[in-house]
Every structure is written in structure tokens, then in C-alpha cells.
């Protein structure tokens, strides 16, 4: 019988773990083991996790979520593992529906994910995936459709082949993992419905938009040397998208860096059909044209 491990990286998560545990207990198919990595918390996280029946690993100093996830999957005893954040939720049929796709010809199963405001439970966004499109060109698709750390089920040996999470990335490490899994030849399946919910708060790591964007840029810069040529058009798209995001975040230096990377890849940013912006690009350069394009999009 196939076993499935629930792996939860924790930092000062004592207040959130009982809520997650309620969604774990409600699963129509049970996880085989529950392991938490306490990343040097100061709020009694380890005691709460143990009271819920978790095996607890503890770090002596805070190493970040990528480090925590790597410690977790290496300690897991199951063939398949699922990572979940302590402050997020699982639908009752999560493991039942995900495990149904975890066959011999599959290494990774992903599902759609909803992002809700924690205070109002209003929907902010939903990440959706189409299996047929992913199978057509996995690495470019995953560049354009990032996968988070909570909506996947992974064959443990696939994580090992990919080297796990990149611990140099403090965020965006989950999206990066899936691109590298695709490059390693991992076989993906998709459950095209939302089976996980991420709750957003103003003080959460995901709310630190500038830091997140810079980590994304770091990952995209690394891909310039590691991705095959067929990924270049989508990599250019993502870098130009990053440049626009940096302008919105009032970080022109990073926007300029993203544009320079596009040019190094053979692109001509910003992509536009607007003749005025095209003229501006020729006369004043891509950064001025990007600013003009950004203003035009707001009108």
C-alpha cells in the first residue's frame, strides 16, 4: 500500500497548527505520517505540534522555508510527500483526489489553489493549471504558471533527483523547484480543481512583495544559464513581466536589470504594438518606453 507523508515547515506557528490539523483530520483518506520542522520558533510551536501527534524536527537557527522543506522530505519515510504551510488549509478530499493520480507513470501531482484574505475570506486569486497544456511544454508552462509549495504531491525520489529546494531562495523556491523538476524529466498530472487554500495576511511572507519579486528575478537570472533554448521566449516574457512589477513596486533599478537580461537573451523590450511606445523605445531606450507603457495600461 502506498504511503503519503504530510510535511509542515513551521516558524512561530503555534496559533495556526490546530486549524490546519482540523483540516487534516477531516481528510477522506488519511496521511501515513505527519512531520513538522520547527525552524527555531520562540512560541511553543514544537509542543503544539507534538500534542497534535506530529513528529517534530527542530532547527537550532532559523534557516528559512527551503531549508525546512529539505529537512522534511529527507526525513520522510513515505514514497510520496506533500508540503503544507501551517497557516493554510486543505480541502477534505485533497489526499483522496491527489493520490488517485499518483500512479506509476507520475512523479508530481498538482492541483489548483485559492488565495483568500484571512480576515474576510474574500477571494484574491486562484492559480489554475491545465494538464494538456502542461504536457505540451512542461518547463515553459511552469515558468508562466508557477506552482506554490502547498498544492503538490511529490514522489520522494523525484525530489531527490532534482536536489530538493534551492536554499539560496528565501521565497519563490517552490516555483523554482517545479521548473527544475520539469527539466529533470519529472512526469506531471493535474487535478484541475482547487483542493488547497492559502490565507493571506498583511504580515505574511507572501505580502512582502518587493522581496518576493527580487527572489523571482534571482531565479529567472539563473535560468538564463540552465534552461534549454525552447524556454527562451517564455523566459523573456517573465523577465519583462518582472520589470513591470518592479515599476509598480517603485524599484526602478531592479526593473532596469530585468530589461537588461531580456536584451541579453535577444529580446527587444518592451513588447508593444503601440507606435508611440515603439518610437519612444528607439529614441529614449527601453526603460523610458516601459514607463510609458505602464502609464498607458493604467488609463
Description of the structure:
The chain has helices spanning 17-25, 45-51, 65-75, 94-99, 131-136, 138-144, 156-162, 173-183, 209-226, 232-248, 252-264, 275-284, 286-298; strands at 4-10, 33-38, 55-58, 80-83, 89-90, 108-117, 123-127, 152-155, 188-200. It has 299 residues and is of the alpha/beta class. It folds into two domains: 4-207, Alpha-Beta Complex (Spore Coat Polysaccharide Biosynthesis Protein SpsA, Chain A); 209-298, no CATH class. Strands 1, 2, 3, 4, 5, 6, 7, 8 and 9 form a nine-stranded mixed β-sheet that branches. The radius of gyration is 20 Å and the shape is globular.
At the third CATH level, what is the topology name of the largest domain?
Spore Coat Polysaccharide Biosynthesis Protein SpsA, Chain A
Q: Which range does the strand content fall in?
A: 15-25%
Q: Which CATH-level-2 architecture of the largest domain?
A: Alpha-Beta Complex
Low-confidence stretches: none
Q: Which sheet architecture does the biggest sheet show?
A: 9 strands, mixed
Q: What's the name of the CATH homologous superfamily of the largest domain?
A: Spore Coat Polysaccharide Biosynthesis Protein SpsA, Chain A
Order of helices and strands: EHEHEHEEHEEHHEHHEHHHHH
Q: Can you give the mean pLDDT?
A: 94
Output the radius of gyration: 20 Å
* Secondary-structure content class: alpha/beta
CATH class of the largest domain: Alpha Beta
- Total strand segments: 9
Helical region count? 13
Number of domains: 2
